[in-house]
Design brief:
The protein is α/β, with parallel strands linked by helices. The protein is built from 14 helices and 13 strands. The longest helix is centred in the last third of the chain and has 26 residues. Magnesium ion binds next to strand 1. The site of 2'-deoxyguanosine-5'-triphosphate has 15 residues, from strand 1, helix 1 and strand 3.
Length: 415
């Protein structure tokens, strides 16, 4: 196995994505506290994206708009469109495709969600290093880059130094420490990766008018963590050497793949809080608690080493749509269930047909998930069947057939 420093991987994540898409369309919303809400019938709607101006007032995602207005009376709101009684995300999906197209001109990308993508820059960096022929990297090429862990050994009272001033000092210190003629230096490779990511982000903004942040490191997990360190409109380089410091205060649940059950069981079983604390356990201890595969992954990961490849994929693997019916709105008759399945199937038919034209591929499997009232899990039941025709009526009938046996009411017409 390699030492985990052989690749250059970046993660780009759009800043308050839905808000930016609305701001691009409506200039009145620009540079203001602003949020995007979904459904407006209950407490002003649920917030799904918040501008950084509004975050300063304490407004957060998944707050009710009415509550957010109490924190920030001047908050401007934009609404997610609705069609067939549910959210229609077409506008944001199209903006996402614009961004992904620009990114993929630079290198192979893996779309990770509607507004983020991983990039493997390893070979692009190698080519760029050849062109540079040992010239040092200039700080001018890294105008929005933070080097995590730098400046080191700063003696001035930190609070008195401007954030931008600290960024520059750290960057200059880092660049001074690099050996620009050693093309196999992992630190130099990351730095050149950061230069390319600066160019990518500038190109995205120029072409789409949308801003993003990025993380640059040796693997997907570190790149994703790095991206969150200096949002918005900035990028952060996390070197292998900065991992102990970064992980020493990084809550385990904040690490990619550890936000769910595995992360929770690590905290409970080992009685630890931070990612760095994992280094005190042997590989076999970790394997005995969490299985062979997870144990080995954790043992390497807490040391900053991870090998998951960036998989070439610019489009999503699955197309999905769904709707929640909380509390009193829960569906209770067969008619209701069938009607809503048809609404969802109609959206799917539209999007599948567009996908077949755009991406030259066909879907072959239909999966149906339902959640029963009171179940805290994301889904109570999941069933699959073949998808043979892009036909809403056929899909909704097949979906109903797949879940009908789950009806616990005992009466055919009730649910
Ligand atoms: P950021 O990345 O912290 O600057 O802010 P966002 O708004 O880009 O947040 P992110 O990256 O977690 O999510 C990207 C977009 O996905 C966001 O703009 C709206 C959408 N989104 C996030 N959470 C939800 C949700 O719970 N429901 C719906 N419908 N959309 C969501
Ligand atoms: Mg985002």
């Amino acid at each position: 196995m390699s030492n985990g420093q052989d690749r250059v991987v970046a993660l780009l994540d759009m800043d308050c994505f839905f808000v930016q898409v609305e701001q691009r369309q409506n200039p009145h919303l620009r540079n203001k506290p602003c949020a995007v809400v979904q459904y407006n019938s209950w407490r002003g709607g649920g917030i799904v994206s918040v501008s950084y101006e509004a975050r300063a007032f304490g407004v957060t995602k998944s707050m009710w708009a009415d509550d957010a207005k109490k924190l920030c009376p001047d908050l401007l709101l934009a609404q997610v469109l609705e069609s067939r009684g549910k959210a229609n995300l077409t506008k944001y999906r199209e903006a996402s495709a614009e961004v992904m197209e620009v990114m993929s001109r630079f290198a192979m990308i893996e779309r990770a969600s509607i507004d983020e993508a991983f990039v493997d820059l390893t070979s692009t960096v190698r080519e760029r290093l050849q062109k540079l022929q040992g010239q040092p990297v200039s700080a001018d090429l890294l105008p929005t880059t933070y080097i995590e862990g730098f400046p080191q050994g700063l003696t001035t009272a930190e609070g008195t130094v401007e954030k931008e001033e600290m960024r520059k000092q750290g960057l200059l210190q880092w660049l001074d420490s690099l050996q620009s003629d050693n093309t196999s230096s992992p630190e130099l490779q990351l730095t050149v990766g950061a230069v390319i990511v600066e160019e990518m982000r500038a190109a995205i903004e120029r072409q789409t008018g949308l801003q993003c942040s990025a993380g640059i490191s040796h693997n997907k997990v570190l790149a994703k963590l790095a991206c969150a360190l200096h949002k918005p409109n900035r990028q952060t380089l996390v070197s292998h050497g900065s991992v102990p410091q970064v992980f020493s205060q990084m809550p385990i649940s904040k690490v990619r793949h550890l936000g769910g059950k595995l992360g929770a069981s690590i905290i409970e079983i080992l009685g630890i809080e931070y990612m760095g604390e994992l280094t005190q356990f042997t590989e076999s201890q970790l394997q005995s608690h969490f299985g062979e595969k997870n144990g080995s992954w954790l043992y390497a990961m807490c040391r900053g080493i991870e090998h998951e490849p960036v998989r070439p994929r610019q489009v999503t693997k699955t197309l999905g749509c769904g709707k929640n019916f909380p509390g009193k709105t829960a569906l209770v008759t067969r008619e209701q269930v069938q009607w809503w399945l048809l609404q969802l199937a109609q959206e799917l038919e539209e999007r599948l047909t567009k996908d077949r034209n755009d991406n030259d591929r066909v879907a072959t499997q239909l999966a149906v998930s339902i959640r029963v009232l009171g179940d805290k899990r994301l889904s109570s039941l999941r069933r699959c069947c073949a998808l043979t025709h892009y036909d809403a009526h056929k899909m909704s009938q097949d979906a109903f057939a797949a879940i009908r046996n789950y009806n616990t009411s005992g009466i055919q017409t009730e649910w």
